[in-house]
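Final report, results section. Input specification for complex C-07:
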Amino acid sequence: MEEEKPWALISEVGGDGLLEDVTDVLTRHFHIISHRDFLQNPRLHGPRIRAVFQWNAQPVAEPALLALLPSLKVVANGGVGVDHLDVGYINSVGVKVTNTPAVVSSATADMAMGLLLASARRIVEGHQVAVDPKAAAPIANNLLGVEVTGSTLGIIGMGDIGYKIAQRSKGFDMKILYHNRKRRSVEDERAVGATYCPNVDELLQGSDFVMVAVNLTPETTGLIGHRELLLMKPTATLVNVSRGLVVDQDALVKALLCGSIRAAALDVTHPEPLPRDHPLLSLPNVLITPHVGTHTYATTRRMVQMMADSALAVIQGQVVPNEVTAK
Amino acid sequence: MEENKPWALVADVLGEGGHLQALAHVLQQHFTIICHRDFLKDPALHGPKVQALLMWKYLPAAEPALLRLLPALRVVSSGGVGIDHLDVAFINSLGVKVANTPGVVADATADLAMTLLLASARQLLEGHRIARDPMTLSLPQDLMGHEVTGATLGIVGMGEVGYKVAQRSKGFDMEVMYHNRNRRSREEEQAVGATYCQSLDELLRRSDFLVVAVKLTPDTVGLIGRRELSLMKRSATLVNVSRGVVVDQEALVRALRAGTIRAAALDVTHPEPLPRDHPLLRLPNALITPHMGINTYATARRILQRVVDNAAAAVRGLPVPNEVTRPNL
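Structure output:
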């Protein structure tokens, strides 16, 4: 019944928040209140709220907010990365954290392939030439890209997303190298024809495309820096679908300017979005998309469903799928 | 030695200062090359020396006016597999052979077809534009694309390129259906998980993404017209890597404006390039690339090697590996 539905706090519907088309997934099980409405009377609304649904890292799960939510049981994050959450702190106030692994993987892997191909084949430049009202004869003889079929793809981070990227690139007869904290099983490797590189340097030196698909942790912050970019081939392309901080952006700018690598394609930067005068925005060999790796209607819907399911499980005292705890 | 090598007339891009000048050495293995611009400075002098016409992206055009100036011509060796730009029968009637380059274009073209599909589905160009827009101050939560994984891919034309598109889409768990004059073998179908669709209409109705990869023949001109577009899903995307005239462009413009289909991604148009005021250039749901299907350094090199090998064989009176004798196969 309506009255029995628990209350949940979200940032907003539309705008920078949750897509309006998918809110029905939440309202089926929750009364939702936007952050703006909540702030109009936190003392009234606060004690009712059992769940916070985080989308695009908002509303920010900081102590000031949590202090207003005495009945809060769960912060359910939309997305698999929770690097923006202090999970240890949130757990310490008796609140669980959940994320949305697996449902995001296919869409993100598709995006990774799209970025790789679009960069390799210079689609953005091609389209600009094709539609340029001033171009006299836009035949693109000088727009030669690099071959994808049969090239070598080096995947750094062979989790769910990295593995799906390997599955997709197999169809292009790409030779696949990968580096991961843990080696995958022989069956997994054989299924996609991937070769393990215990030394990431070997992968960097051997790859035509370097794909970064790791979690953001203290160990992976700045994983791709000046040294790594120098090890890469001057004809190589860097693709990042992890987090902006995994790549040293200043080093990347320098590498692109002096030709240490051919190009970069980034769905993630730091910060997001970049300051409007950032050099990455004006380099011709950089393709940037605004963190849309999971942005399909179907995947977004699945993510929100997972958030709702996880939050309900916590509130109802059931086994919680997709809980994230501090390591 | 230079003097002993037969002369070949080549497109300007392969000449001095041309964009493909770096690849000219491939041609110079067997030929002394003269580019069209230089040839035209003194056709009476140069013409009688030319034994081979090496074409790149339709140039130099093998028209009667040019061929008339080349009395010693043995072969028109064209880079690429399409020969719809050549009047093969007429050229043959002059005692000149025609050759193309099958077998080396398919990978790059299939890669581009997948690129167009993904770029359109996931709004890559729009994303890039927003990412760079001076007015962008926050991430756009409403920039949404369409799921590629698990979607239904319809391939019209299951030749070399179509088949390679099927191979690539298998990795995305796409459901692959195809329509072709001839059905492929069961082994070939199973290898890529493709289902044959006897009826083009059925393929149109069921596809989320339709990739057109046919040869241009009298039968395929206007293959995708008003009727075919109306059968497609409103959420469907059309990708064309064949030839511009395979699609009825006016019908396509109407369909894109009315939302009859979601979007189109075209590497080929008619003409090429489109007039600068053509509506296709301004539709937000049309992604157009300037016939870049084979535009990689490696593939361009492979094509030119084949162009040269074909031409060298013809000039030596040997069998030409990729001779084209019938215009419409």
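Residues 297-315 of chain A form the longest helix (19 residues). The longest strand of chain A covers residues 49-54. This concludes the modelling results for the funded period.
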